[in-house]
Amino acid sequence: MSESGVEETKRSLERVVDIAQQVGRFDENLMFRGVDALSLREEFKAHFRNVSRIMDCIECEQCRLWGKVQTAGIATALKILFEWDESRFSFAEDSSVDGIIQRSELAAMFNTLNRFSESLRAATRFRETHRKRKNSSRKNFRRIFRLSSVLSPSLIP
């Protein structure tokens, strides 16, 4: 990757982190607590790996590919969430994510983030369209009702 590409990626990642800090923070420590915390965490990982193996059964290659990319993206996010040692990484010049997260994992995570964002945007558009149609239907019903009340009952079939 070129020097300008690296800088652009860092700026984009910093924007994502800023947005995440504005919306709030997920406390992963609340997820796996108690006596069985370690075994629960390992069981969670095993079930997640099984999802990836199930993806192999999908016949459509494009669906299988996107399913695997999104599964890898979620897995990377969980890896960061549960296994990240913040003292090992910073945006300093001498810092590196080598050995912590692979480039393909980051690409999968950002692809998945993009897919989730697109899905949320589509859900918002669908909700807005539904609201407009619902309001339009109510207005049409009111017009028909007013028209029918103006007409004499003998003209209404």
From TrEMBL:
Its main location: endoplasmic reticulum. One of its GO terms (biological process) is protein folding in endoplasmic reticulum. One of its GO terms (molecular function) is thiol oxidase activity. SUPFAM superfamilies: ERO1-like (SSF110019). Pfam families: ERO1. It comes from the Eukaryota. Transmembrane segments: none annotated. Keywords: Disulfide bond, Electron transport, Endoplasmic reticulum, FAD, Flavoprotein, Glycoprotein, Membrane, Oxidoreductase, Redox-active center, Signal, Transport. It is found in: Endoplasmic reticulum membrane. One of its GO terms (cellular component) is endoplasmic reticulum membrane. It is a peripheral membrane protein. Its cofactor is FAD. May function both as a monomer and a homodimer. Belongs to the EROs family. PANTHER family: ERO1-LIKE PROTEIN, ERO1-RELATED. This is ERO1-domain-containing protein. It comes from Gymnopus androsaceus JB14.
